[in-house]
Amino acid sequence: MSNAGRSPSSSYSSSPSGLQDAQAPSQLLHWKFSQVLGELPLPAGSGRHDNGTLQDDGDTISAIEFDGRGEHLAAGDHAGRVILFRRTDESHEQPPPSRAELERTDYAAAAAPPAYSYMAEFQSHEQEFEVLHSLEIAEKVKKLRWCAQPNSSSLCMLATNDRTVKLWKVSEHRSRKGNGQPRRRRSNPASPSEIALLGEGGSGATNGYYYEWASKKARSYLSPDSAEHSEKAGEVGEGYTAKCRRVFARAHEFNINSISDNCDGETFVSADDLRINLWHLEVTGQCFNIVDMKPADMEDLVITSAEFHPLSCSLLAYGSSRGFVRLVDLRRSALCDGNVRIFKNRENSMQPRTLFTEIISCISDVKFTGDGKYLLSRDYMNLKLWDLRMESSPVATYKVHEFLRPKLSELYNNDYIFDRFNCCTSKNGDYFATGSYRFLLLQHINLI
């Protein structure tokens, strides 16, 4: 992670209202090592673990996401697995100290770093083959998003690979008491009114996938051995079970680049290069295409990221390869081809364009601050903070890769100029973070 902190440094353009000016060095963030989750990376030149087994590329993390309260952490890997961790330290149950108290004590009274432990692991996606386009779809988990928690003992999240989004529910599994055999379900069939109410009379989704309730009636007549097998099939950790509640598939012709859940707790969007689809969490057979871009040349304009507003369920922002961010209102029309705001730095349009100008201006990620007043956008060179009320220029620009500008030709020859970096903001909006390169990598390709 690179240093994009609360207070702009010497590389910022202006300071946003509501954010304080540059702070004293003693009040800046101090990054310290906290914890390792999983296996440590192998030393350079080593191809084996200590036990002699080859390192599996499927263990490489491809997506990571904290829930809203920071109590759970989810990580997805190239093998299609999702690994969950839960916070185990006792300090998170106590209210955090106020900002005034931290500044008065020079941050010495800050709580100990959080500690997480393994919770569960499940296989989210499998490798698939799309017959229509003769395309192999990898099982790699690209994005993870936590959904609203249904109850205190269950967690819900969205996970996606290149083409399919799945809704998972992870629940605490309570062991049954008795003679060790699972309890038999009642054998009398459900009444027609119950079937109609639960929708169990149909086949589930029209896209070929079935809801969880589609097999409930069949399970009612299973033998004890079969029932035991069906109950244990979903166990993903000690005391936890995972169930795939919904599968949202066959709606994208291009690879999905982002998903975002809505603050209404009922809908979410999935975006690819040309389309943004609006889904309901309870409906898999139908989605609404709210943004449909059909440029003459896909190299000119594609969608790169989409994000819902944290407080207003009708506002959606999405970035493009042309370097601007559009803010649309779902209430204005069914197809959001117009925009409420378009955030683009007008000053940059007056500068001379080069071969690399369009490449480095491509928006790779957009995020709202927690209060919904500001918007973060990340391109290859900069992290920009926008005020939703002012679209002509960002209120702050953090020049993350300005030192690489003289080396753009070398980055282009090595394809590093096409790398994408994400960004995030703290819950209170005081701190931002984004990614960068390792020092050893830049040294290896003679960029520093």
Automatic annotation (TrEMBL):
Residues 7-17 have a biased composition (Low complexity). InterPro entries: PP2A_PR55, WD40/YVTN_repeat-like_dom_sf, WD40_repeat_dom_sf, WD40_rpt. Residues 174-187 have a biased composition (Basic residues). One of its GO terms (cellular component) is protein phosphatase type 2A complex. GO terms for molecular function: protein phosphatase regulator activity. It comes from the Eukaryota. Pfam families: WD40. Keywords: Repeat, WD repeat. SUPFAM superfamilies: WD40 repeat-like (SSF50978). Residues 1-25, 171-199 are annotated as: Disordered. The B regulatory subunit may modulate substrate selectivity and catalytic activity, and may also direct the localization of the catalytic enzyme to a particular subcellular compartment. This is Serine/threonine-protein phosphatase 2A 55 kDa regulatory subunit B.
